[in-house]
Amino acid sequence: MLKTNIYMIAKVFNEQGCIAYRCRTAAEGRRLLKTLEKSQQKGVQIVVLDSPDIYAEYAPYNYIEEIQEFTDKVSQLNRMGI
User: Fold this and answer.
1) Is 2 within the bounds of a domain?
2) 82 lies in a domain?
3) Residue 49: inside a domain, yes or no?
4) pLDDT band with cut points at 50, 70 and 90 for residue 4
5) What CA–CA distance (Å, rounded) separates 34 from 14?
6) Neighbours of 45 (CB within 10 A)
7) How far from chain centre, in Å, is Cα 26?
8) Domain range for 20
9) Cα separations (Å) of 4 from 16, 19, 50, 69, 80?
10) How do residues 21-62 score in pLDDT, each as one tens digit?
11) What is the spatial distance between Cα 56 and Cα 76, in angstroms, rounded to a whole number?
12) pLDDT of residue 81
């Protein structure tokens, strides 16, 4: 069972929608954020949210269940955001 309400959100600026991953622990969230920030390209936004449903500006949300799939998709966004 998930223990946190920490969501990592990634999107390309000025594009509709985002990808989202619900972190399993706060420690996982911290590690993931550090990893994503190292490779973040200009034009890609990384955001940490506790309740995505109240942030309509990122909708629609495409929830990713596995961390590896999420990081792979963020890498694809980084290539788009350059």
Assistant:
1) no
2) no
3) yes
4) low
5) 24
6) 16
7) 14
8) 7-76
9) 26, 18, 8, 20, 30
10) 999 999 999 999 999 988 777 888 899 999 998 999 999 999
11) 23
12) 56
Q: Quick one: pLDDT at residue 7? A: 96
pLDDT at residue 14 in the model: 87
**Domain-embedded: residue 1:** no
Cα–Cα distance for residue pair 62/74, rounded to 1 Å? 12
Residue 61 has which token pair? 């949300």
- Quick check: helix, strand or coil at residue 43? coil
Q: How confident is the model at residue 3 (pLDDT cuts 50, 70, 90)?
A: low
pLDDT at 31: 94
Q: Give me the number of domains the chain comprises.
A: 1
Query: By CB neighbour count within 10 A (0-12 exposed, 13-18 middle, 19+ buried), where does 20 fall?
Result: buried
The answer to whether 11 and 52 are in contact (CB under 8 A) is no
Structure tokens that stand for 45 in this block: 């936004």
Do the beta carbons of residue 76 and residue 18 sit within 8 Å?
Answer: no
The mean pLDDT of 10-16, rounded to a whole number, is: 90
